[in-house]
Amino acid sequence: MKNVLIAPSVLSADFSCLKSELDSIASADYIHYDVMDGHFVPNISFGPEIFSYCKKSSDLPIDVHLMVTNPSEIAPLFLQRGADIVTFHYEAEVHSHRLIHLIKDSGAKAGISLCPGTPVSVLENLIDDLDLVLIMTVNPGFGGQKFITHSIEKLYALKELCRKHDVSPLIEVDGGVSADNAGKVVAAGANMLVAGSAVFGQTDRAKTIEAIRLAGEPALIIQA
Prior knowledge:
By secondary structure, the protein is an alpha/beta fold. The protein has helices spanning 18-23, 48-57, 71-79, 96-105, 151-165, 182-187, 197-200, 205-216, 220-223, and strands at 5-8, 31-36, 62-67, 85-89, 109-114, 132-136, 170-174, 192-195. The model has no long low-confidence stretch (mean pLDDT 94).
């Protein structure tokens, strides 16, 4: 991993001008696409049709984050439309291994997300099969929340688990990420940062993306 990957969350975009919003984040590495069902989380976001619009309107790969109670049923809707990464919540899926391999067999990368209250230890028997682990640093469901500071300890624990298993999945952080804390989360092990309001709340999105990236990259030396 040579640089910090930035994935702006379109949950914070202005959907009245979505194409121009997507164009404004062209310097990012991924689009982060949150799917919320109103059950697993209280909010409702958007589904496969808007995903298809994003896919045809941007050259960026799309990182789909399923915050739903039935991820094994929802994942295929995005896989068949070309999702590059599909991440589901550990808390929502009984048959995690099965879903991981369904995602991989479809040609996408497979990720698992952990809510703030879920310990990293639950991944002991899954980490070898994962392409990505997403650590929620806010309670999932709404954008613009404050970063939960004890998440830093969780990232260190995840880094140790990866070392134990000699694996190197992408370690993604979602929630309250900005240039102010990017260095801390990268030093703790993260290499992919989701930023919603921190990016879309600014006029110059390219400058903001670069600021977050530059704030995090010096900490890659600490990771090594």
